[in-house]
Design a protein that fits this description.
Helices cover 10% and strands 29% of the residues. The strands form 2 sheets. A 6-stranded antiparallel barrel has the order 9-10-11-14-13-12. The chain has a 6-stranded antiparallel β-barrel with strand order 3-4-5-8-7-6. The chain has 3 helices and 14 strands.
């Protein structure tokens, strides 16, 4: 688990590169990591090729990878609100179509960012942002748009979900430039609310996933990335206590709760 000092340092670096980014609350942390370059990925997961998650993207700034995201159309990417500032000049790019976040694929500039108007950096509620790309992606050449759920479509408790990204693995023996993924079960909302009762509210816009004993989870650098059921995007990596800690499942933004906003904003 990253120390609070480390998290605050990370937030400080982000504040110099993107505008209006949130600060962490309590000992919890959103799962971004602007200092991540070539180290770290999903905790307790396995290596995966981009062909298996062709909708996965890496959000990049001058320092390289710092968050994940999901292609939802040829011109739009969905990520976490805490990964973005509120500026119309984001100075960001997304790397698509590659298993390695350091090179390969295609680096596409971001035209504008639209963070959800109800996003709350204190509670990390409505943790969503849409990114319009400056160039249209060719969805026939190794990159594909992920499917989206219907408005308020439920995720049944215990459903096997897959999370992927280039975030921290907490394993110094793992080379971190490659993409990793892990399977985690969705967690009952009341159970998750109880687990986080001392830290903050689990709102209806949040979805929890993970094992009771921990061991598999998203971590710093995975923020904004996809949580999918098959090829359907049900969650966006958002926040949690530690990484893969026993008793604390990962917390994801529940995509189905903002499906209408996504359509109204992007036309997708």
């Amino acid at each position: 688990m990253a120390s609070l000092f480390t998290v605050l340092a990370i937030a400080s670096v982000l504040a110099t590169t993107t505008q209006s980014l949130p600060s962490p609350r309590n000992s919890l942390r959103p799962w971004f990591n602007p200092l991540l370059r070539s180290s770290g990925r999903i905790v307790g997961g396995y290596e995966v090729d981009i062909a298996d998650v062709p909708f996965q993207v890496s959000l990049q700034h001058g320092f390289g990878h710092f968050c994940g995201g999901s292609i939802i159309s040829s011109t739009w990417v969905l990520t976490a609100g805490h990964c973005t500032g509120s500026t119309d000049d984001p100075q960001m790019s997304v790397r698509v179509g590659t298993t390695l976040h350091t090179f390969g694929g295609e680096l596409v500039p971001v035209k504008r960012v639209i963070r959800h108007p109800a996003y709350d950096h204190g509670t990390v509620d409505y943790d969503f942002a849409l990114m319009e790309l400056q160039e249209e992606l060719d969805l026939e050449k190794g990159v594909y748009a992920v499917e989206l759920p219907e408005q308020d479509e439920p995720v049944e408790d215990g459903t096997c979900l897959q999370v992927s990204g280039w975030g921290d693995t907490q394993n110094v023996f793992e080379d971190g430039v490659g993409l990793r993924a892990a399977y985690v079960p969705s967690v009952n909302q009341e159970k998750c609310t109880e687990a986080y009762s001392s830290f903050g509210e689990i709102t209806p816009r949040m979805l929890c996933a993970g094992f009771d004993k921990g061991g598999k989870d998203a971590c710093q650098g995975d923020s904004g990335g996809p949580l999918v059921e098959g090829n359907k995007l049900v969650g966006v990596v958002s926040w949690g206590k530690g990484c893969a800690e026993e008793g604390y499942p990962g917390v994801y933004s529940r995509v189905a709760t903002v499906r209408e906003w996504i359509k109204e904003t992007s036309g997708v």
